[in-house]
Amino acid sequence: METNTKATDDGRKIVLSGIRATGNLHLGNYYGALSKFVRMQDDYDCRYFVADLHALTTHPDPKMLHENVKDILAEYLAAGLDPEKNTIYVQSDVPEISEMYLLMNMHVGIGELMRTASFKDKARKALGIGTPAEGEDEEGIERQIIGNQTNQRVNAGLLTYPTLMAVDILIHHADFVPVGKDQEQHLELTRRFARRFNSFYKTQYFGEPVNFNFGGSAVKVPGLDGSGKMGKSEGNCIYLIDDEKTLRKKVMRAVTDEGPKVPNQEVSEPIRNLFTLMELVSTPDTLEHFKNAYADCSIRYGDLKKQLAEDILKTTLPIRERILDIRNNDEYISKVVRQGAEKAREAAAKTLRDVREIMGIKKF
Ligand code: TYM
């Protein structure tokens, strides 16, 4: 049996990534993932998908799911992904993924899944368990989740979320998985499952995929509410689809502090977050100007926010216009995903055939 090829026939490395179909894309998705997808498309064999099966773990309204998938596809294309250069598909259009998810689950421990940060976070929210205070016993939280006597339920799909994500990646033998910082633990689990599979079946079948950041480190885009990352469920997002007025209003309302009182005062989290956003969207000179103004106490947060809004709009407005355009073109979107599913299935079917054989499943 052919082992992990680690590259396509033409020698290019394989890139795989996806975004859950849970609503419009925000700046966190854009700078953590989508902008990297676009930058990688000329040099790698890239396969990008919309994770609709993963979205089911949080029970979306069935009427909305398909619309959400379409939104993200339109946003992929509007951000500059070229369907001729990339394989763009919807996760559920590749049923091989679901079968391999079942097979891979046989090698995944419930303990390691329960210790995953994203699982604990989502389970806590589902059961109404508060966030642990600093230093609080994490195992206590795990016990509360297991011993839950409420009529709220944490579904098994949420627990096995990392298995499905590992399969998304391994079924393509991906070398690189461009994701934001919050997904790195899932990527670490993917490598662990790959190693475990290889060692159990005494094979070198799977490689160990890594994040890709153009030589830098993984990005965590902060929200506008003073703390934490930008996230759909946090209500602190700037969306690619936001119109000019909405976007300016959101930025002008961003949390700040009382302003520096003494030169070179330590920068508080809300202001650090605004500088982080500025680092992503503004020129280095602009950022330096405001950092200097902070250091000598002459900064006016109103000016900082106005500039920040201006610079965000330079990126998002052209994308927004294209989203609105593509979103109305059902025919184009279906053509892209039909073509993408065909290519993705070809690769996935080969891996699934190999995995079945390695695990001893044979046809009569
Ligand atoms: P999801 O849908 O939550 O997020 C999609 C991508 O956006 C990145 N991201 C951020 N990056 C920086 N700062 C932020 N504030 C921020 N918020 C979101 C995420 O890191 C991610 O790259 N499990 C994945 C989807 C998935 C996947 C995969 C990804 C399923 N299978 C296989 C890669 C490979 C998720 O929930 O991402």
Strand-helix topology:
Layout: E1 14-20, H1 27-40, E2 45-51, H2 52-55, H3 62-79, E3 87-90, H4 95-105, H5 110-114, H6 117-127, H7 138-146, H8 156-159, H9 161-170, H10 184-200, H11 244-252, H12 269-281, H13 284-295, H14 301-327, H15 330-359
Parallel strand pairs: 1-2, 2-3
Task: Provide the descriptors you would attach to this structure in a database record.
364 residues, mainly alpha, Rossmann fold, Tyrosyl-Transfer RNA Synthetase, 2 domains, 3-stranded parallel sheet, 15 helices, 53% helix, binds tryptophanyl-5'AMP
Give your account of this protein's structure.
The chain is built from 15 helices and three strands. It is mainly α and 364 residues long. A three-stranded parallel beta sheet has the order 1-2-3. It is globular, with a radius of gyration of 22 Å. The mean pLDDT is 94. Tryptophanyl-5'AMP binds next to β1, α1 and α9. Tryptophanyl-5'AMP binds at residues 16-20, 28-29, 32-33, 51, 54, 165, 168-169, 177, 179-183, 186, 219-221, 229-231.
Distance between the termini: 19 Å
* Assembly status: single chain
The overall pLDDT, averaged over residues, is 94
Tell me the overall shape: globular
Number of strands: 3
User: What portion of residues belong to β-strands?
Assistant: under 5%
CATH class of the largest domain, please?
Alpha Beta
Please give the count of helices: 15
The helix content is: 40-55%
